[in-house]
Amino acid sequence: MASEKRLEVVTCTAPVNIAVIKYWGKRDEELILPINSSLSVTLHQDQLKTTTTAAISRDFTEDRIWLNGREEDAGQPRLQACLREIRRLARKRRSDGHEDPLPLSLSYKVHVASVNNFPTAAGLASSAAGYACLAYALARVYGVESDLSEVARRGSGSACRSLYGGFVEWQMGERADGKDSIARQVAPESHWPELRVLILVVSTERKPTGSTAGMQTSVETSALLRFRAEALVPARMAEMTRCVRERDFQAFGQLTMKDSNQFHATCLDTFPPISYLSDTSRRVIHLVHRFNAHHRRTKAAYTFDAGANAVIFTLDDAVAEFVAAVRHSFPPELNGDKFLKGLPVEPVLLSDELKAALGADRTPGGIKYIIATRVGPGPQVLDDPGAHLLGPDGLPKAAA
Amino acid sequence: MASEKRLEVVTCTAPVNIAVIKYWGKRDEELILPINSSLSVTLHQDQLKTTTTAAISRDFTEDRIWLNGREEDAGQPRLQACLREIRRLARKRRSDGHEDPLPLSLSYKVHVASVNNFPTAAGLASSAAGYACLAYALARVYGVESDLSEVARRGSGSACRSLYGGFVEWQMGERADGKDSIARQVAPESHWPELRVLILVVSTERKPTGSTAGMQTSVETSALLRFRAEALVPARMAEMTRCVRERDFQAFGQLTMKDSNQFHATCLDTFPPISYLSDTSRRVIHLVHRFNAHHRRTKAAYTFDAGANAVIFTLDDAVAEFVAAVRHSFPPELNGDKFLKGLPVEPVLLSDELKAALGADRTPGGIKYIIATRVGPGPQVLDDPGAHLLGPDGLPKAAA
């Protein structure tokens, strides 16, 4: 019998994704099965990524996890569900007859360290990237090659969409056991090179209602949500898929805005009502509509998740002018060069007509900063051993 | 043949009404027919009323109207529709064989003067009270005794609900000609004497989207609104009627809050989206939910129309504590005794537990003032000639 390995370490990176047809509400809380399908855009890891090192060793006495340098509770149900699922897949693989030269014992404990290259306080949903990364890393460790949607999903529903680059759908599935509730790529990251994404990080007021509890209350109390899921989303998924495949920005942008608004409408129809949109969010919405009205076409589109940050889609020929419009209506309080992060955006002047169209309202400091990014690839393995976040002892390396 | 009268003057008062099952969206723009029924509470005229004097004379050369002392455009389509309708009813009455001892010529022009005893800037929908008052006054002038729903409705949809006191429904009707789209009283003003109404007038930011255009866009673009009107409102109307008839405040309050939220949800599902709820509105919503959670029962309920002002329902045994809670979370910037208008409310201290439940958030000056009122009667005729707003010459009397 082949001897077992003492320690296996894998480091991966995974992206953040932003849904343009929103997921909100589960039909199964344990298996994390949604009441409707969703479609997302994977953002580029140069600007936003989670890096996760997973280490498995017979010397570890318990599962442990560090997030952004801080140890968290590894007994947390979502994490344990994730681990159970990957171990189940690994066990299945072996019983299907695959031979590993040095199989790891599935009873070994796992150490996980994960860091984001973007601030957690930015309110960007990092659990999707985090669980996708974890699933991907553990799959590499255990040699699992099957679909990882379930592994990622059990950690955080939308994490399955972060398993692919480009444009990704999470098919809701019909089976009660969730085996057909999987993510698949609709188009690769190279499909629409002109598409740009701006994340407008707004000044945070109150901590928003957590999405797990929020969507549960929505499912229980909102008749509008049920109608949306059953009667409206299927056609929207088909239309959004068409928009992406045909690179129809006009239609893509309008449907993106409408779906964001409809999601937030169902939150308001929840009891007690959930409001993720702040006054600043609404001002961003107004700015986009005025920007588009001025141009007489949809040149920018907003979407908001369960928080006040705005995600704006434009094509590359409109980014500079849109950023200038944001600076105009939300004059930065920060030093100018800290306001814009990520991809470079050239400074341009606004025309007088556009300034007039945007109106006199100013909200100084309403937007803390902007991250400019684009569509990006799915998870990656890092081959460089220097990239590991855990040392040979399985503990986090000292911060650089 | 009886000679015609030279001048006829009638002065009436009419109330404001607040919908608890909301009207939003027309199936006929010209006849003002709604896509769903609605149910409202008539507020007491001691606190809020419109006073209207209608004068008709053969000496008048044109229709003229003064609102709060300022002359407005009498050619305005809604006003003209109102006048045409009342004249049609008067003509019909005569052709049905009713004899008036001194019939007025239906070709005479009309002068109308109307004043509110509440500030227009308060954003309280005064067109309902105004058109109800006009319809009622003109009916008295012309001796029309039939149902005035259509007359009032043609001026402003919800005005038909101001034709009655107490609790009023506006049945949407099914006929294309709108003859069955009428208001009727569900319960009189004496039915629920413990019910109180607080109007929280918030500091106005931007002028909100007008409701006529807003609801038209909603009908055109929101699938959630169509579903609400067809599938949800009928059962809500039945349930709200039950709540009123049985004086079930728990259920009345919850359904009121849910319907307000659902109305605003359909506004958000409109494209471009309409947001009537400001950050202050949302803070009021949070306050009510925390107040109720503290008491473990629904003791206060909010509803919002097409604007940021909050209307709160409570029973009389909760008013004082709720007003104290508002003062606590929205400390008045005004001199204390200008903050509370209308019915007297005794000052009470908040318990420490309630203060803790309300949380640390303070919004100084967020609420400009409160009007405390209750359920009230329908339109009234003023018999005192001194009450006329127009002199014998048909022109506004000098302001007192």
From TrEMBL, chains A, B:
One of its GO terms (molecular function) is ATP binding. The keyword Lipid biosynthesis applies. It is an enzyme of class 4 (lyase). Keywords: ATP-binding, Cholesterol biosynthesis, Cholesterol metabolism, Lipid biosynthesis, Lipid metabolism, Lyase, Nucleotide-binding, Steroid biosynthesis, Steroid metabolism, Sterol biosynthesis, Sterol metabolism. Its EC number is 4.1.1.33. Pathway: Steroid biosynthesis; cholesterol biosynthesis. Residues 14-183 form the Diphosphomevalonate decarboxylase-like N-terminal domain. It comes from the Eukaryota. GO terms for cellular component: cytosol. It catalyses: (R)-5-diphosphomevalonate + ATP = isopentenyl diphosphate + ADP + phosphate + CO2. Residues 197-382 form the Mvd1 C-terminal domain. The keyword Lyase applies. Signal peptide: none annotated. One of its GO terms (biological process) is isopentenyl diphosphate biosynthetic process, mevalonate pathway. Gene3D superfamilies: 3.30.230.10, GHMP kinase, C-terminal domain (3.30.70.890). Belongs to the diphosphomevalonate decarboxylase family. PANTHER family: DIPHOSPHOMEVALONATE DECARBOXYLASE. Catalyzes the ATP dependent decarboxylation of (R)-5-diphosphomevalonate to form isopentenyl diphosphate (IPP). Functions in the mevalonate (MVA) pathway leading to isopentenyl diphosphate (IPP), a key precursor for the biosynthesis of isoprenoids and sterol synthesis. This is Diphosphomevalonate decarboxylase. The lineage of its organism: Eukaryota, Metazoa, Chordata, Craniata, Vertebrata.
